[in-house]
Amino acid sequence: MTIALGRFTKDEKDLFDIMDDWLRRDRFVFVGWSGLLLFPCAYFALGGWFTGTTFVTSWYTHGLASSYLEGCNFLTAAVSTPANSLAHSLLLLWGPEAQGDFTRWCQLGGLWTFVALHGAFGLIGFMLRQFELARSVQLRPYNAIAFSGPIAVFVSVFLIYPLGQSGWFFAPSFGVAAIFRFILFFQGFHNWTLNPFHMMGVAGVLGAALLCAIHGATVENTLFEDGDGANTFRAFNPTQAEETYSMVTANRFWSQIFGVAFSNKRCYSGLGVGPGGEVIDTFSYFVSGVPHLISSAVLGIGGAFLLVFKALYFGGVYDTWAPGGGDVRKITNLTLSLGVIFGYLLKSPFGGEGWIVSVDDLEDIIGGHVWLGSICIFGGIWHILTKPFAWARALVWSGEAYLSYSLAALSLFGFIACCFVWFNNTAYPSEFYGLLDQKLLKLKHSLF
């Protein structure tokens, strides 16, 4: 018996091969399979937005002028959300609301659902485009994974949040002033800036922006070529083939800025990676490790103080269910039972069980933070003392992988925080984060 090893080749191309060749052909604008989703959705979303901001009024839905035709400018023009009376209708052009009448469809706010839904799938198509191009040029896909963060934000704010309200009316309209109006509304009703997940997200975005600016400036300032120019920029030729910036110079600059000079002695070999895998430098590990160490320490100490010691001994925490209408009290009967704490994870998110969002006991919340804090602390010690397992190393190829997974995790945290603020009145009391359910809807109806 003979076994032939090798790649299977077909004698003639089938329809899929012909389509694949045409879609992935090297052209001025790459199409690809992802383009079948991206380009139509992006075309309809952008076309709907330009049409709405140019011609369509919001008088019938919000009592506002919102188009260039009515005298608005770029800041005040918007594609506004449908009226509150239309609830969560998809507002299809051929649906019972518009009945095929394009003018009526625009007046009812049909362009908003049109732009929102096509925009969401357009963003997904753009992420798939990044996957496809990365595969084509043999890059790792972490740009695409990181882009899941903006997609999660768009879906959470424009789709998930209004699904928890009485209609699309409470979603942001598509416009500059409209977005600012939504931010003020959201702060007024939900006190979102007091949400610790939002605080961590803002800190992460600002910190990432700072690191990007520092990195770009450092590379720009250490460009070099062995030329005869009077300074770095005159001597630099952008088409030269060899390395064009000096890691050693950058190392020396930043190490002196922080007041400590890090040498590159051969005895430190093994801590920094150079060409061909040779380990020559320590500074990159310092840059990566120290911020993680500091931020982990700050979060650990702050969490232990605010969510454990303060709750138990120094003043207590606010309990919205306390007798008399809510009061600050100390936690006297801490829940540390594994079955109770981790039992919330085993609950279904459907059928009224509510998953972890259903927690309604402050003792359980503080006990859960004790367990989470302990896991984080001992997990950090474990990672310091042990080498990652093979399956973990297989998932992480580089620093970009860590960043991409972190952005995906932040997106998940943001989604969970939305659900907590939306449903849970124990961790997020309505006195601080806005009223819940029918109370909130009645109040909104009275104001709008």
UniProtKB/TrEMBL annotation:
Pfam families the record matches: Photo_RC (PF00124), PSII (PF00421)
Membrane topology reported for the UniProt record: Multi-pass membrane protein
One annotated GO molecular function: chlorophyll binding
Keyword DNA repair in record: no
Superkingdom of origin: Eukaryota
One GO cellular component term: photosystem II
Keyword annotations from UniProtKB, A to Z: Acetylation, Chlorophyll, Chromophore, Electron transport, Iron, Magnesium, Membrane, Metal-binding, Oxidoreductase, Phosphoprotein, Photosynthesis, Photosystem II, Plastid, Transmembrane, Transmembrane helix, Transport
InterPro entries: D1/D2 (IPR055266), Photo_II_D1/D2_sf (IPR036854), Photo_RC_L/M (IPR000484), Photo_RC_L/M_CS (IPR055265), PS_antenna-like (IPR000932), PS_II_antenna-like_sf (IPR036001)
Segments passing through the bilayer: 28-50, 111-129, 141-161, 167-185, 197-217, 293-316, 328-346, 366-385, 405-423
Chief location: membrane
Compartment(s) of residence: Membrane
GO biological process: photosynthetic electron transport in photosystem II
Homology family: Belongs to the reaction center PufL/M/PsbA/D family.
Name of the protein described by the UniProt record: Photosystem II D2 protein
Phylogenetic lineage: Eukaryota, Viridiplantae, Streptophyta, Embryophyta, Tracheophyta
